[in-house]
Specification:
alpha+beta; four-stranded antiparallel β-sheet; two-stranded antiparallel sheet; binds glutamic acid
């Protein structure tokens, strides 16, 4: 059972996300990661296999100032526990980061469809299809994330939570 945390506000997201992940540690996990939107618009993604304390140590070298972010502790269901399979997972253009709790049952067919459409996958997870589906939804003209998520979710089969 994994954990998801999200934050947006007027203070740095990094320590808030780490504290959130610490509070979720009791649920069990194999890896952890965060994505933080930096003030200049870059989306920074940092993942580590192992403990939240290792992620925290790595993040201490960056000390990101962004005030909006998501975090995840993973319990692998699709793809072995590894840094490459740790969440967040991102779209090809790096503009969309996704953390996900649960299973996308139809991920294999979606993955093939998205690969055929030119998407490159960087992990073995079911989760990664969500980031690419969102990218496709924006390409199809969705005006905002709510509309894109609605379109993408219409393709997903399974029980899940997403940030
Ligand atoms: N199915 C996803 C994965 O294997 C999410 C697992 C979870 O809920 O932590 O990465």
């Amino acid at each position: 059972m994994c954990g998801i945390v999200g934050f947006t506000g007027s203070i740095a997201a990094q320590p808030v996300l780490i504290e959130g992940l610490r509070r979720l540690e009791y649920r069990g996990y194999d890896s952890a990661g965060v994505a933080i939107l930096q003030p200049e618009g870059a989306l920074e993604v940092v993942c580590r296999k192992g403990k939240v304390s290792e992620l925290e140590h790595t993040l201490s070298h960056f000390n990101f100032k962004g005030t909006c972010g998501i975090g995840h502790t993973r319990w692998a269901t699709h793809g072995r526990p590894s840094e490459a399979n740790a969440h967040p997972h991102v779209s090809c253009d790096g503009d969309i980061a996704v953390v996900h709790n649960g299973i996308i049952e139809n991920f294999a067919e979606l993955r093939e469809e998205l690969k055929a459409a030119g998407h490159t996958f960087r992990s073995d997870t079911d989760t990664e299809v969500i980031a690419h589906l969102l990218e496709e939804a924006f390409k199809a003209g969705c005006p905002d994330l709510t509309a894109a998520l609605s379109m993408a979710a219409g393709r997903l089969v399974g029980a899940y939570g997403i940030a």
